[in-house]
Amino acid sequence: MPIYDALQAEDPAIYNALMGEMDRQRDGVELIPSENYISPAVMEVMASVFNNKYSEGYPGKRYYGGQEYTDCVESIAIERATKLFNCEHANVQPHAGAPANIGMYFALLEPGDTVMGMDLSHGGHLTHGHPVTYITKIFNFVRYKMKDVETGEIDYDEMREVALREKPKIILAGFSAYPRELDYAKMKAIADEVGAYTVADMAHIAGMIAGGALRNPFDDGFDVITTTTHKSLRGPRGGMILCRELALGKKMDKSIFPGFQGGPIMQMVAAKAVAFGEALKPEFKDYAHQIIKNSQRMAHRFMENGAKLITNGTDNHLMMIDCVKSWGITGQEAETLLDRVGITLNKNMIADDPRKPMDPSGIRFGTPAITTRGMKEPEMDILTDFMLRAIEAKEDNSAIEQLHSEVIEFCRGFPVPGIKA
Ligand code: DSN
Fold first, then answer.
1. Peptide bond into 357 cis (omega under 30)
2. Cα(417)–Cα(421) distance, rounded to whole angstroms?
3. Does the structure show a pLDDT above 90 at 199?
4. How many Å lie between the centroid of ligand 1 and the Cα of residue 84?
5. The ligand 1 atom nearest the CA atom of 33
6. pLDDT tens across 260-307, in order?
7. Range(s) for CATH 3.90.1150.10 in the chain?
8. Which of 204, 233, 346 to mutate to test the pocket of ligand 1 (most atoms within 8 A of CB)?
9. Residue 236 in 3-state DSSP?
10. Where in the chain is the domain with CATH 3.40.640.10?
């Protein structure tokens, strides 16, 4: 367990906030599907003297001296990443997912070029071309959607029509709020017809792909994968770009540095190496499969109890519920109510949501973090019942308080890595 004596003496305000956050994580159920708990080994190297080093460039080709050990950790991170995802090249320097995507766009496109990505309200991500992002001032984005929100099937016929008309340079797979598998082979075939690169932003599902529980887009011939490293992959906060072939990887390297970022955050690069080492172990495969078993069990129990799940189920780690249709409350009301009993998730737009992003109809939640705590199918039933009881209790303060105590008691049985039980 880390010791925070120096922090306590130096800065009590920050120390107290840190202790509060530890208690919150220990005593609450984390269902935000993009969050997870890192291992103590990952945490140790994140809080290390690698922070003190500037390392612009890449292993063996840096702009500063003193790179013996930074070269070592970055080379190990690259080697493990390429092994984990079965590809020729990895750039492990992106500071987060958005910089990874921006670096990827600039590596593959000229200003004015077109990208085809998933519509935000159908599950896509802001960095896939939402008008509020600056990247849309440089590149042109067109969208694809689900054909049928009851099954989640993507409209691949429309995707093809739009691709033939708009001639995108990139067809972008990937999402942050979509509970189904994509048909990468179909997307690749459309991309080949129009001469587009294929890129998968697998930030949410990287852990399941690494663990063999979901399909690897490289197996269907995709060119590039971008990802974060801190979601289901269970590493430090950061990003990464993977290329099936070395030649494209060299373009990514130039784009990330010197094209876009400055010095890499070497303690995070070292922590990525440790996390990738953990993900290469056989037990990570069990973890990846259990995430999905847990998610499907929860989805099933919610549906048994009359909840309206977007796409009527899940193939991956996340679920979306239309709260208005299910319970006559908004996504914000559900989020607030569940927060009060120590269950954290996020409000979310549903497909073609008539409501606004800050007050949408749905919630989004998932199982990567609770699976790290060792929870399995029986615990999914307990958690679903807690959630349903909270929604039922609504304004009954004493029922909500009683439920919150039960949630804390339940959490005590499942320690968070790196936090004292
Ligand atoms: N913030 C991430 C998520 O929650 O999905 C995506 O960037």
1. no
2. 9
3. yes
4. 22
5. 4
6. 999 999 999 999 999 999 999 999 999 999 999 999 999 999 999 999
7. 7-36+289-411
8. 204
9. coil
10. 44-279
Q: Does domain 44-279 have CATH number 3.40.640.10?
A: yes
Ligand 1 pocket residues where CB is under 6 Å = 34, 97, 125, 176
Q: Is the pLDDT of residue 120 over 90?
A: no
pLDDT of 309-322, one tens digit each? Answer: 999 999 999 999 99
Cα of 200 from ligand 1 centre, angstroms? 15
Question: How many whole angstroms from 34 Cα to the centroid of ligand 1?
Answer: 6
Which residue's CA is the nearest one to ligand 1's atom 2?
34
Phi then psi for residue 225, to 5 deg, are -125, 130
Could you tell me how far CA 394 lies from the centroid of its own chain?
A: 30
Name the DSSP class of 257: I
CA distance 364 to 177: 7
Q: How far is the CA of 220 from the centre of ligand 1 (A)?
A: 25
pLDDT tens digits along 13-53: 999 999 999 999 999 999 999 999 999 999 999 999 999 99
Nearest residue (by CA) to ligand 1, atom 1, is 34
One-character DSSP codes across 289-313:
HHHHHHHHHHHHHHHHTT--BGGGS
pLDDT, averaged across the chain: 97
CATH code: domain 7-36+289-411 is: 3.90.1150.10
Q: Which of 30, 176, 178, 364 to mutate to test the pocket of ligand 1 (most atoms within 8 A of CB)?
A: 176
Percent of the chain with pLDDT over 70: 100
